[in-house]
Design a protein that fits this description.
Elements lengths: L6 H9 L3 H13 L22 E7 L5 E7 L2 H12 L6 H6 L2 H5 L4 H4 L2 H4 L2 H15 L1
Antiparallel strand pairs: 1-2
Length: about 140
């Protein structure tokens, strides 16, 4: 898998797309996530409150930076997860903890673009990433 593109690059591209192409961009982004082994898709790694099944598993790289494995059974939701991770992947826990993830996602205006059922688990995904970072910072 290729690494997730920088969030700023994604926001720039997203801005010029119509709704249908924005969906495609999210689906393509979801395909860039590393494969998450099925053994890690457990109740403990499942994100609560999502209409689709979403799993997020935090790890640390050798340099201590955070790296997340994630997956979803829904293509658009998987893209949303990838969007969240694009802003925090492979960064120091302290940097991630200090990042206002919701603000970094504001240019994507996901609540306007997607149904509420698609975005209802977003705050829980953000909270999981943030809590992991705070615990490890």
């Amino acid at each position: 898998m290729s690494p997730l593109p920088p969030l700023a690059d994604l926001a720039e591209e997203y801005e010029f797309l119509d709704s249908e192409d924005r969906y495609r961009l999210l689906i393509e982004l979801g395909r860039k996530l590393e494969v998450m082994p099925d053994a890690l898709k457990t109740d403990a790694t499942k994100v609560r409150g999502c209409s689709a099944s979403v799993w997020v598993y935090p790890t640390q790289n050798g340099d201590g930076s955070l790296h997340f494995l994630a997956d979803s059974n829904a293509a658009i939701t998987k893209g949303i997860v990838a969007l969240v991770l694009a802003g925090v992947q492979d960064r120091a826990p302290r940097d991630v903890a200090e990042t206002d993830i919701a603000a970094t996602l504001a240019p994507f205006d996901l609540a306007r673009e997607l149904s509420s059922s698609r975005t209802q688990g977003l705050p829980n995904m953000i909270a999981l990433v943030r809590e992991t970072a705070l615990r490890l910072a």
